[in-house]
Amino acid sequence: MRKLAATTAAAVLLTAGLSTPAMAADPPPPTDVQVSWADGKVRVTWADTGQANMVYLTSPGYAYLAAEPTADAPNEVLLDPRNIRDQAEMRIALRTMVDRQESASANSPVFDTHRVPKPTILSATSLSGSSVRMWLRQDEITDKNPNDPLDHPAGAWLRASISGPAAGEQREFLIPSGTKQADVPVRPGPVTIKLSASNEWGSFPVFRTVRVGTMRVSAALPARASWTGFTVNGQVEMFGPPAGEGVPVTIHARPNASALWKTISGTSAEKSGPILPAALGPAGGREYRLWVSETGFLRDDTFLLTPAASTSAKFVRTNASINRAEFFPTRAPAGTTVKLIVHVEPQLPMKAALQKWDGKQWRYLRAVQLDANGNATIAMRAPLRGTAKYRIATPAVKVNGLPVDFSTSLPFALTVL
Q1: β-bridge mates for residue 34, sequence order
Q2: Beta strands across the sheet bearing 337-345
Q3: Above 70 in pLDDT, residue 255?
């Protein structure tokens, strides 16, 4: 113990004449720490007096050393936003470093990191081949620190990337963030639409894709038909529904080009296949077209769409149907009585005409008054001996406002003995 005490006393004597050095002062902290955007990176700048620095990303309960610029480096660093915590209120804490001693922190303004909410395409449909309407759902994220230095002035946005219809063709269309329904313009032809959601913190693909195909419909419509009607045939060529699934085909009609189309019948076709023949009933002359509505199917997270398509309008003229026009009997002695029997549709009390062929042209012979059922039975005296050709001619009329043209029967003969 005495030996230990003496050693201690000696140490005190040896140091009694020396002054104890003071603790070194902390390095001066940086000043004017600012954050901004530069080419998609977070740019941090500051002022100092030429020291090395430590750049920290901080939020409550969190600190991360993001960069260590040397004393001879510029007072600027660029930080990848993907390395910054999402949904956090952040700031940059910057310290100078001298002889391994850090200064107090100099802080940037607080900014928040909020990734754009990922939207989902709920549904999509083609609009007349010139645009696609999409219904979107997008979660809302609250900006806890609005108008901070890193907030983009435009906020978040959606970007529609449209590929096609030409090979290699690519266009972009911006949609405001939060949009529930958006119409994206497209050119006719096969196109693919992919959405991405973006804000200043990055871009993210949107769940589901839209592909727009093509639709073509053709039809065989006569230039003229009889009153009893005609049959429509045609073809549908399309991309869209699974093979073999029926595609509804609507038949429209209107009296003239200035009137509205009305649905008068319907049929169907298979994908890229013939239209099932459709029989149209009695009607006067009018315009017709075949219409196939747009289709939409969701398959493997892709909306497969085809735009509506139709044939061009075609006016089909109508003749009366002269179902019976004959003499009975067809052979009779001269001077005897024969009957002219006529039945015409449409069944109207119209005044038809009996015409006779004179070897060069048809000559009017007499009027034939039809009753309300389109019938006429007229007794006539057989003329001089010989065989002559006759026909019935009906005038142009209108039925329900639609024209039925001047019409004639097939020739029929009377032989007088």
Answers
A1: 45
A2: 321-328, 337-345, 375-381
A3: yes
What is the pLDDT, as a whole number, of residue 300? 87
Angle, CA 292 vertex, CA 247 and CA 241 arms, to 5°: 40
Give the integer Cα–Cα distance in Å for 202 and 156: 10
User: Pick from 255, 239, 258: which is nearest to 247 by CA?
Assistant: 239
212-234 pLDDT tens trace: 988 899 999 999 999 999 999 99
| pTM passes above 0.90 | no
Helices (H), 16-119: none
CA-to-CA distance for 404 and 409, rounded, in angstroms?
Answer: 14
- Are 341 and 377 within 8 A, CB to CB? yes
Q: Are 146 and 163 in contact (CB under 8 A)?
A: no
pLDDT at position 24: 58
Contact between 234 and 326 (Cβ < 8 Å): no
Write out the DSSP string of 169-235: -EEEEEEETT-SEEEEE--SS-EEEEEEEEETTEEEEPB-EEEE--EEEEEE--SEEETT-EEEEEE
Locate 196 and state its tokens: 């991405």
Each residue of 357-373: b (16+ CB within 10 Å) or e?
A: eeeeebeeeeebebeee
Q: How confident is the model at residue 242 (pLDDT cuts 50, 70, 90)?
A: low
Contact between residue 247 and residue 312 where contact means Cβ atoms under 8 Å apart: no
Query: What one-character DSSP code corresponds to residue 405?
Result: B
Q: Considering only CA atoms, which of 391, 288, 404 is closest in space to residue 346? A: 404
> Phi-psi bin for 83: left (phi > 0), alpha (psi -120 to 50), beta?
alpha
Q: Among candidates 63, 56, 51, 62, which has minimal Cα distance to 35?
A: 56
Instruction: Calculate ∠ Cα 144-148-152, nearest 5°.
Output: 100
Percentage of the chain lying above the pLDDT 90 cut: 62
Cβ atoms of residues 134 and 210 within 8 Å: yes
Are the C-beta atoms of 103 and 27 separated by less than 8 Å?
A: yes
CB of 42 closer than 8 Å to CB of 35: yes
CA–CA separation, 65 and 92 (whole Å): 10
CA-to-CA distance for 184 and 193, rounded, in angstroms?
A: 9
